[in-house]
Write a structure and sequence with these properties.
- Residues 1-15 have a biased composition (Low complexity).
- Its EC number is 2.4.1.-.
- Residues 1-35 are annotated as: Disordered.
- Pathway: Protein modification; protein glycosylation.
- It is a single chain.
- The protein has helices at 3-14, 24-31, 45-61, 67-82, 100-117, 121-151, 153-165, 167-172, 178-194, 198-212, 217-230, 233-259, 265-275, 290-299, 301-307, 309-312, 317-320, 323-328, 330-339, 353-370, 381-412, 414-420, 541-545, 552-555, and strands spanning 86-87, 432-436, 453-458, 469-470, 505-510, 525-534, 558-566.
- By secondary structure, the protein is of the alpha/beta class.
- It has a domain at 412-564.
- The protein has a five-stranded mixed sheet. A two-stranded antiparallel sheet has the order 1-4.
- The radius of gyration is 28 Å and the shape is globular.
Amino acid sequence: MSLSSARQRRATAASPPTDDGYSKEAKDRRRRPSGEEEEEGIRWFLPFLALGLLRHMSASSNLIHDCDEVFNYWEPLHFLLYRSGFQTWEYSSNFALRSYLYLFIHALVAGPASMIFGEHKVRVFYSVRIFLGLISTITETVLVVALSRKYGKRLACYVLAMLCLTSGCFFASTSFLPSSFSMYAVTLSSALFLLENYAAAVSVAAAGVILGWPFSILVFLPITVYSLIRGSFRRVFLSGFLTSMFLLVLSVIADYYCYGKWTASVFNLLKYNVFGGGESHLYGTEGPSFYFKNGFNNFNFAFILALLFLGFVPFARKKYVPDLLIVVSPVYIWLAFMSLQAHKEERFLYPIYPLICVAAAAVIDTFPDFFHDKYSSEQSIFEKIAKGLRPLILGFILCASHSRTFSMLNGYGAPIQIYQHLEHHEDTGPGSVLCVGSEWHRYPSSFFIPSYISEVWWIDDGFRGLLPFPFNETLGGTTAAPSYFNDKNKASDEQYLKDIGACSLLVELDLRRPYPSRGSDLSTWETLAALPFLDRELSPALYRSFFIPHRWQQNNVFGLYKLLRRLPTDQA
């Protein structure tokens, strides 16, 4: 054997086996500009545009999913702007459970909008919603960009698609609720953590807890702890501490200004629900499976994949551990904690909605790794099939999500549309009285009540809980502590209109039950508008939850959501 041939074989063995100019790695190197070592990831414009369009659609078409959104947030905001609106017992100065600072943030948009649009209060309502959609767009864009820089474009694109189209994110993104605000903060804090800006991540977490929902501190806990460990402890700690103190002081000042006494709504809420043995069970209880059913409705199979994330971590340990595991871990912590509580509501899961998308997208991205043989240089047939299944699974999830969204908007969108008809019936006359019976919980807020209507009253349809009362300027407005409020959900004798004959207009839902509705008396009422409303009790669960072409209309049962006007005495 010659020395030259031995050297040639050693040189061949030492050379990279795939660097032949045609491998994926070689092609990627040729595509990169000189001096650039890593892929840039998704740029800001694409996710901002996509999310912005979808959040604008949400702002303009979203339902009001919870009466708490109306009576604890839209109504007090309406009072701050127009000096009229409904007050709940939580806003009585005796209890002071709700933060006015949270309302003032939204008043920064609602105030100028009310001056611009004048009496067109509905436009003010949608201006605030567009503001909420913008916040959601910005925070989610930062998350998508952070994911693309750390884990690549594919995972980021999967997350972007789910953030845009899953029903849960579509509905929660423009809801005027502290849990939605905490969701924005969770999204931004997670993104900043992935971008290794630990001090900012903790500051945003503090804002989410104090300005949004204090109980969401559990969601922020993993990122906060690891940020303190990884970053400069002093800098990160001071960032979170100073942000917390600053916002707490602002909150106390805002509460003093509105409640007329020194109080801290953040601590009052914690005291009532945690330390004071709060009786939230008075407002309804659900079983342990409630959030799992709800999660499937809002995310379909993406929710199941998100729950399977821990099972896929061993196959992508180098890629996703520990950072993505830290980001996603609140899904399990929050689900476990909230499932143990007796009182459950859909909005309580809002803070983890974006994290569900991240976890599900990571599982889809990891599918091929499940079949990968690390001792083989070639892909197995199963690994190739798994790669081909990724876009199909994502597409199925997105189609099912759109089906859910379409069913919800078309099945339950009548209340807001009916109240918008009020502005077309000024001929009813000034000083008119609008009455609402069992549909009080779908009242969309006083932003939909035109100026010719002087009062909105509840009429007794059998509900025995405590209902909201109008803010009483005589007693002090926001500083008032009316005697008719209590924290036991006991109905007040004063909450219903005694003389139904005083009603000029009536809103009711006619589900065509054996017993007659008030509007069925054609000698007393005329129908001004009527829209179909999905009858949840008589419609099959599958067809009412998801829109299935040619089946949704045929298999579901619909009632009529009506706006009625009392006939003049000479016609009655």
